[in-house]
């Protein structure tokens, strides 16, 4: 999640250098002509898979060294403070911004999608929440025709990816943060832990929720991700610095492996085929058009993220027939679902005034605001560098405290919301010409999701509080679906992002209920101790219709969690990937990133992406022993 309030901290107090030795920054001319595996995208998932495939140089059962090449559009990050210090905004040069097509559910407003374009991808710039969905969220993947993808199957991979460190005793005494290691890993690459600091007013927020009968949940990572939680973060201990995929799976030993090559600042522009078998990739410098190609003997592994992976498949001839023939792209495999089933979580910002709060608020708040304490910010940053204490140990974007609520805990009118949802015909809300398989898949998902809406074991509502006068409400399990489709054969042109926000009216109903719930919270004695006042949408906005209008006027389509555009589902439900993440009808081509999720979990997405990629690596290794599978 990214705050609308962006601050450029004028901190020139630390000098840093670009860490980039000969092997990391090799050019195209240093590459081999052929690799066993080429990974497209050195982001979150791509680095996991490349690391795991190269960690045992002899593969599973052959004596041949398996060589892996990662091609990444971005650069290696420069190790500057914004990439490491949680409280400093991440450098804009690693962000890519897509602007959507006008959203008809948002009065034709456009909305932004942000992604990371840098080695490590989203995890170099993200808000650092490191939490999992509920067991039901993953069991739904299995239910959609994917054996081996339920919660119990994924739990070992969540563990494998992380080293979890409990919160300090002081934090444990004041906040719900379980030291229970059972659902956690303690030897994995990604640091998962808690800042040693919090703002006192966040305790009012927990008390407020508790007074409304909301569960204060110290253990949200064991399959019941509901309640008011003090979230673990992707934070490495003992350094108290961001733990990105670049740090966890790439920098250091892995990047120096003889069998692990990487090429940065280059874009894969096309997957090459011999018949229906992926045989290599074509790539070009990021800003150039001079292409080169590299051969692949085993698999092309696509990990370009939920926006660019469907773009690449479409450019390569895998996708909806009409779209590709309209652009004169020769069809390699017709797959109507490529780019559809796009999901993100719509978010709405509620501006507050905490009129009785005199103490500090997050130091990185807009310096132009009347509550910014410049002296406090300077002092806290010095404290961070000296002792790894203080406000800068908390993430810049949204802190670490969130409420995940089931619909039944948001509104006593939950049955009305669900009954209304049942009257909506997916055929009527799908764009005309939508392939019937996609509509069948959407209906199958809505059936499952409405069961989730009636359950107390998974959430539909997220809201944040980081101690500043702002709360964000998020619809975690939207019923709307969008698409990401190319409109040009130029790989440098962004694909068209259509979130489909609020095309299913239930998503508005859920956020209306959420806003009303936040008003109850603001009126609780604990929040009134802070003198909480709602500034926007404000008290003139009262009836459900008025609240809905305010939401439609200002909701953002994204919570920076794009998923689902190459869904792992049966082909006849509009799916693109089989349960081994292989593209239907093609040999030697897998997708391992957030695009594979059939339904978005009620969670932030990075820890799920890591778990999925860890499992993908095992699936790929397992198939190495099946001799003869790849030529
Ligand atoms: C601003 C922001 C805030 C977020 N906050 C949180 C949070 O607090 N908690 C959380 O859990 N999640 C958060 N997320 C989401 C999380 O980071 C992502 O879900 C996750 O990183 C996605 O991983 P991925 O492997 O699917 O894609 P990415 O990590 O995006 O990796 C894709 C990579 O492929 C590269 N690439 C793309 N196209 C090509 C091409 N053609 N050739 C070569 N390379 C290519 C890209 O440059 C990128 O590095 C946030 C994301 C963002 C952007
Ligand atoms: C949005 O745009 C569509 C197509 O241009 C138009 O038909 C519709 O009236 C617009 N809606 C609003 C609220 O402006
Ligand atoms: C939801 O409400 C029920 C009934 O009051 C309560 O038992 C449960 O703990 C609540 N769940 C959450 C996540 O707040
Ligand atoms: C620890 O954090 C500092 C920034 O405060 C950074 O310079 C250093 O590289 C980090 N060390 C590791 C191992 O991440
Ligand atoms: C490459 O393009 C990016 C934007 O796409 C731009 O910021 C950068 O300056 C360009 N670099 C060069 C060397 O042209
Ligand atoms: C917030 O409340 C304080 C105290 O009443 C007041 O001085 C300040 O102007 C208010 N700020 C905003 C943005 O309303
Ligand atoms: C294609 O889509 C992109 C991204 O939305 C947009 O900038 C561009 O104008 C579109 N081009 C055409 C020809 O429609
Ligand atoms: C609509 O959005 C605009 C721009 O964000 C804002 O200024 C205005 O107050 C909003 N109106 C309503 C009714 O929410």
From TrEMBL:
The record's annotation in InterPro entries points to: FAD/NAD-bd_sf, GMC_OxRdtase, GMC_OxRdtase_N, GMC_OxRtase_C
Q: Give the matching Pfam families.
A: GMC_oxred_C, GMC_oxred_N
Q: Which organism is it from?
A: Zasmidium cellare ATCC 36951
What is the name of the protein in this document? GMC oxidoreductase
Give the protein family.
Belongs to the GMC oxidoreductase family.
Q: Could you name the domain of life of the organism this protein comes from?
A: Eukaryota
Which residue spans adopt a coiled-coil conformation according to this UniProt entry? Answer: none
For FAD, which residues are the binding ones? 44-45, 118, 268
What cofactor does its activity depend on? FAD
Cleavable signal peptide = 1-22
Q: Which UniProt keywords apply?
A: FAD, Flavoprotein, Signal
Instruction: Give any GO molecular function from the UniProt entry.
Output: flavin adenine dinucleotide binding
Record GO biological process:
secondary metabolite biosynthetic process
Which residues does the UniProt record annotate as the domain Glucose-methanol-choline oxidoreductase N-terminal? 305-319
Give TM segment ranges: none
Q: According to its UniProt record, which residues of this chain constitute the active site?
A: 561 (proton donor), 604 (proton acceptor)
């Amino acid at each position: 999640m990214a705050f609308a309030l962006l601050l450029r901290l004028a901190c020139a107090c630390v000098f840093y250098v670009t860490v980039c030795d000969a092997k990391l920054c090799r050019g195209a001319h240093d590459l081999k002509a052929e690799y066993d595996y080429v990974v497209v995208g050195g982001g979150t998932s791509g680095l996991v898979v490349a690391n795991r495939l190269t960690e045992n140089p002899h593969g599973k059962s052959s004596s041949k060294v398996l060589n892996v090449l990662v091609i990444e559009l971005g650069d290696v990050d420069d190790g500057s403070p914004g990439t490491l210090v949680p409280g400093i905004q991440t450098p804009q040069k690693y962000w890519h911004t897509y602007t959507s097509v006008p959203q008809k559910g948002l009065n034709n407003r456009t909305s932004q999608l942000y992604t990371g374009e840098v080695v490590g991808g989203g995890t170099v710039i993200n808000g650092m929440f490191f939490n999992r969905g509920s067991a039901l969220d993953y069991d739904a993947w299995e239910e959609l025709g994917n054996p081996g993808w339920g919660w119990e199957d994924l739990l070992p991979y969540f563990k494998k990816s992380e080293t979890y460190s409990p919160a300090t005793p002081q934090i444990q005494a004041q906040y719900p943060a379980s030291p229970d290691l059972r659902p956690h890993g303690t030897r994995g690459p990604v640091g998962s832990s808690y800042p040693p600091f919090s703002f006192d007013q966040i305790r009012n927020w927990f008390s407020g929720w508790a007074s409304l009968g909301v569960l204060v949940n110290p253990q949200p990572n064991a399959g019941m991700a509901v309640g008011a939680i003090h979230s673990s973060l992707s934070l490495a201990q003992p350094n108290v610095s961001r733990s990105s995929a670049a740090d966890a799976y790439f920098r250091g030993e892995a990047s120096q492996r003889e069998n692990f090559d990487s090429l940065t600042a280059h874009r894969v522009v096309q997957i090459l085929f011999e018949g229906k078998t992926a045989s290599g990739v074509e790539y070009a410098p990021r800003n150039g058009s001079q292409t080169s190609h590299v051969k692949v003997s085993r698999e092309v592994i696509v990990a370009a993220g939920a926006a660019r992976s469907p773009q690449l498949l479409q450019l390569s001839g895998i996708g909806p027939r009409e779209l590709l023939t309209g652009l004169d792209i020769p069809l390699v495999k017709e797959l109507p679902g490529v780019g559809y089933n796009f999901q993100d979580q719509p978010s709405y910002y509620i501006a507050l005034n905490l009129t009785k709060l005199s103490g500090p608020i997050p130091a990185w708040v807009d310096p132009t605001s009347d509550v910014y304490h410049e002296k406090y910010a300077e002092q806290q940053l010095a404290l961070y560098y000296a002792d790894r204490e203080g406000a800068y140990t908390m993430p810049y974007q949204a802190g670490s405290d969130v409420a995940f609520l089931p619909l039944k805990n948001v509104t006593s009118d939950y049955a009305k919301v669900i009954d209304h949802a049942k009257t909506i015909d997916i055929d009527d809300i799908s764009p005309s010409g939508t392939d019937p398989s996609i509509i069948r898949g959407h209906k199958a998902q809505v059936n499952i999701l409405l069961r989730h809406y009636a359950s107390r074991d998974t959430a539909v509502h997220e809201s944040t509080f980081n101690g500043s006068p702002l709360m964000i409400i998020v619809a975690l399990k939207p019923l709307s679906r969008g698409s990401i489709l190319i409109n040009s054969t130029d790989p440098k042109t962004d694909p068209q992002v259509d979130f489909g926000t609020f095309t299913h009216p239930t998503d508005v109903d859920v956020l209306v209920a959420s806003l009303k719930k936040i008003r109850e919270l603001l009126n609780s004695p604990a929040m009134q101790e802070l003198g909480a006042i709602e500034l926007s949408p404000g008290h003139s906005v009262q009836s459900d219709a008025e609240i809905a209008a305010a939401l439609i006027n200002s909701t953002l389509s994204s919570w920076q969690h794009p998923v689902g555009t190459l869904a792992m589902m049966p082909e006849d439900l509009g799916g693109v990937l089989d349960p081994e993440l292989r593209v239907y009808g093609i040999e030697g081509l897998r997708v391992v990133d957030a695009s594979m999720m059939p339904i978005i979990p009620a969670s932030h997405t990075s820890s799920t992406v890591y778990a999925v990629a860890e499992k993908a690596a095992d699936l790929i290794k397992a198939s190495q022993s099946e001799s003869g599978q790849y030529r």
